[in-house]
């Protein structure tokens, strides 16, 4: 069985989202322990991950240091997060595999995702990145031309353009590495967004792709059987946060689309996960699972989490 595992920002940092290196290393050890458990079963695993906190922090550093060293564009920051997080995840996974006596090699691939130059996401920023700030501090940055949004209890967060991933340019390399037995970390942060010029050349564009939507495209391209979206809640929940809250178990893709239309899943958090799970199954995937990181073995071997299946299927 081939599994595409998407790790949320919650699985990559501590809950305050500040993304200190030590927090990220600790979180990577927890996450990769779960992945090493999974690798004790007969599965191929491709790992992708979020980069919202990290790419936002890099952007701030860039801006703060702009008078001293040349700033780099947002797509460069995204590429840097793929390398750094891949490095941290590989170290943690190698250690967890070694502990369990599992003989698998790991690899990280810098991965580009093709987007359309005229994607409406470029005109309306929607992707929250970086740290949370109180409203007054966010207001100052809004006056300097940035877009910030009220994200509830934790405060305000910067939002940037987030186009749709159309194709994972480097998916063939992921496929080849998986075929050769590697556990591959790929398409971090949803992929580095690139557009294709008329002459066929690719160039980076300033945006951050939703990693769950990127994961759905990658999962189909590398012929994954199961897409597992690991986050900090065990299930997608109907009437979330109310006394009528109802965790979803096994659900058909049509029913889940219906619940999404009724507004059960918040945009910028559970909404894209549900959308990604539906896209994967609608495109022919066997099943998609949304669950907590510590439930991912159950997600593969049993029925844990929210399990999205085709309308006619009982896979
Ligand atoms: N209907 C829902 N069911 C479950 N969780 C929801 C729902 N709507 C919003 N959420 C929120 O979505 C969060 C997970 O999304 P997010 O924070 O973006 O995850 P990650 O960083 O792991 O990708 C949960 O912690 C929960 O607060
Ligand atoms: N790129 C992305 O979706 O990152 P997060 O999951 O950290 O928001």
Automatic annotation (TrEMBL):
InterPro entries: AceGlu_kinase-like_sf, Asp/Glu/Uridylate_kinase, Carb_kinase. It holds the Pfam family AA_kinase. The keyword DNA-binding does not apply. Keywords: Kinase, Transferase. Residues 1-291 form the Aspartate/glutamate/uridylate kinase domain. GO terms for molecular function: kinase activity. Belongs to the carbamate kinase family. PANTHER family: CARBAMATE KINASE (PTHR30409), CARBAMATE KINASE-RELATED (PTHR30409:SF1). This is Carbamate kinase. The lineage of its organism: Bacteria, Bacillati, Actinomycetota, Actinomycetes, Propionibacteriales.
